């Protein structure tokens, strides 16, 4: 029986493709965005403790109360913002679920959703599956900042939602106060909501501060903020995140969440709640990752690639257009096969798949793996 696909233009994600190729070739995997090292053993001990204590059944749909309370405390500590743990915090099975649930909660057939191009690859499918229409606004090259005049021109009477990402994947651009103010000015008199993907909230460099959309009063009233414990505590395989939103948006969000995953792994929630009681564990994260970024960038100086150090996230982009006309996909495959270093071609993040001759490397890896990958890249011949 023939099936009419709801996503006819979607195949296997590039992250799966490149990670499999890296595995098949025995390559150093700097492609998919997951840490190449384990989490704190103390966190693993806490999970075991709560498993042995019998916390192995369904958690409450919105998340175990103590974890929601600790998220409120963390938000207060970092941003000086008071949230209601009962009505504004929802624990979910990964930030990807949070993004999908938020889109599903508010996007209806024919609604337009503004996406900044390039964008993480889950955004557009979530919009399309809900009958929405993605409207792409190109980011400014080479720093991938937002051109707010372009955003203004893209807004129509059908615009329902704007999806933002800071720090940005794949570029690492970190939003400024001016960016928040510009977005607020554009939507203040319109019925437009916002989804903010802030999974790299604790990974910013060179003294930059992550400015959550929660920190702007108008944006806070319109925004679903989606975050990830996986990125923060090196446990991406746990798939645990959370969504912060005002009560009326949270109510609609939970209507969807309860029929997607209903609840998230119980012992891990309790473990994370206890682990969050020590703020230094996430306050030290920028320094931890900046050392890795600096190590990687220092090595890149010995290669023919051109680059600007990332402002945030755990990705570094490099340009090679001055060296070769080879497509970014072909070069990523060749680097993996010939020298054993896997990367991501960033053309996959663009709506039109335009090839800007840029690769993305993940530096959230062991220092020895980074050093080995750099040695290979230094001697690679175009």
TrEMBL record:
GO MF annotation list: kynurenine-oxoglutarate transaminase activity; pyridoxal phosphate binding
Keyword tags: Aminotransferase, Pyridoxal phosphate, Transferase
InterPro entries cross-referenced by the UniProt entry: Aminotransferase_I/II_large, Kynurenine-oxoglutarate_AT, PyrdxlP-dep_Trfase, PyrdxlP-dep_Trfase_major, PyrdxlP-dep_Trfase_small
Protein name, per record: 2-keto-4-methylthiobutyrate aminotransferase apoenzyme
Entry-linked NCBIfam families: PRK09082.1, PRK12414.1
Domain Aminotransferase class I/classII large span(s) in chain numbering: 28-376
Any one GO CC term of the record: cytoplasm
CC cofactor: pyridoxal 5'-phosphate
Similarity section: Belongs to the class-I pyridoxal-phosphate-dependent aminotransferase family.
SUPFAM superfamilies assigned: PLP-dependent transferases
């Amino acid at each position: 029986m023939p099936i009419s696909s709801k996503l006819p233009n979607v195949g296997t994600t590039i992250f799966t493709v490149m990670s499999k190729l890296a595995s098949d070739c025995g390559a150093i995997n700097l492609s998919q965005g997951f840490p190449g090292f384990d989490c704190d053993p103390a966190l693993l001990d806490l999970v075991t403790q709560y498993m042995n204590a019998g916390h192995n059944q369904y958690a409450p749909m919105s998340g175990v109360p103590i974890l929601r309370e600790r998220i409120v405390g963390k938000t207060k500590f970092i941003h000086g913002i008071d949230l209601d743990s009962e009505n504004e915090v929802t624990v979910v099975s990964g930030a990807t679920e949070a993004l999908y649930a938020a889109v599903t909660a508010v996007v209806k057939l024919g609604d337009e959703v503004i996406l900044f191009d390039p964008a993480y690859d889950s955004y557009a499918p979530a919009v399309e599956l809900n009958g929405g229409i993605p409207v792409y606004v190109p980011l400014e090259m080479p720093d991938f900042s937002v051109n707010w005049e372009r955003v203004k021109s893209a807004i129509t009477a059908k615009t329902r939602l704007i999806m933002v990402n800071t720090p940005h994947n794949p570029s690492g651009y970190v939003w400024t106060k001016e960016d928040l103010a510009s977005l607020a000015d554009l939507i203040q008199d319109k019925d437009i909501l916002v989804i903010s993907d802030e999974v790299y909230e604790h990974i910013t460099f060179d003294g930059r501060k992550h400015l959550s959309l929660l920190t702007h009063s108008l944006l806070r009233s319109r925004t679903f903020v989606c975050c990830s414990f996986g990125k923060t505590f090196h446990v991406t395989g746990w798939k645990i995140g959370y969504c912060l939103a005002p009560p009326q948006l949270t109510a609609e969000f939970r209507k969807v969440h309860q029929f997607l995953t209903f609840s998230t792994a119980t012992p891990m929630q309790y473990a994370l709640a206890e682990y969050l009681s020590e703020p230094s564990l996430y306050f030290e994260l920028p320094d931890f990752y900046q050392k890795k970024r600096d190590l990687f960038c220092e090595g890149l100086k010995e290669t023919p690639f051109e680059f600007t150090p990332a402002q945030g996230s755990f990705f570094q982009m490099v340009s090679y257009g001055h060296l070769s006309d080879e497509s970014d996909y072909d070069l990523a495959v060749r680097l993996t096969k010939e020298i054993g270093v896997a990367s991501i071609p960033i053309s996959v993040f663009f709506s039109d798949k335009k090839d800007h001759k840029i690769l993305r490397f993940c530096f959230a890896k062991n220092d020895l793996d980074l050093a080995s990958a750099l040695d290979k890249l230094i001697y690679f011949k175009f």
